[in-house]
Amino acid sequence: MDFSGIFEVDRGTGLLAPAELCLSPNRDSRPPGATLDLLVVHGISLPPGQFIGRYVEDFFLNRLDPTADPFFVTIKDLRVSAHLYIRRDGGVVQFVPFHERAWHAGKSVFEHRDACNDFSIGVEMEGADDVPYTAVQYSVLAAIIGVLKKSYPTLNALVGHSDIAPGRKTDPGPAFDWATLAQRLPG
Question: How many CB atoms lie under 10 A from the CB of residue 77?
């Protein structure tokens, strides 16, 4: 599956077309002079290990019903977001424009720099540490990385959440196949 040429970034708005837009309130301005040079891949499913409904979207929009699942009570007060969310079927939702700071990395360090949210783009993949991601997700992610690198030439590092928050985070987990992603990345 080749999705190259499907996506484009509007540098003026920081939006990806044709992603579904659901603006999260969990965002703010990047620090002055921040350079986008890191892309962080995450994995998420709500409830954990289940791929049903729009719970992830509701979570990033602060609309998650804590009575819908016992796990939701434990996360009901968290305020998080990501720039993009790639569903298992390849659908893409954008929650934060790329020029704004999404609240995806939390306490994090990359190459001796703290606060990765300041200089990164966060992409959530609908998945779990121990459940293989779908072929279409890898193809969509690869196409998006290609267009992001063209739009933001300083974007030169690609890591998992576990790489910048070791011991605290495990996603996207061992089920995420970095070699498959690398094979699909454009030239």
Answer: 8
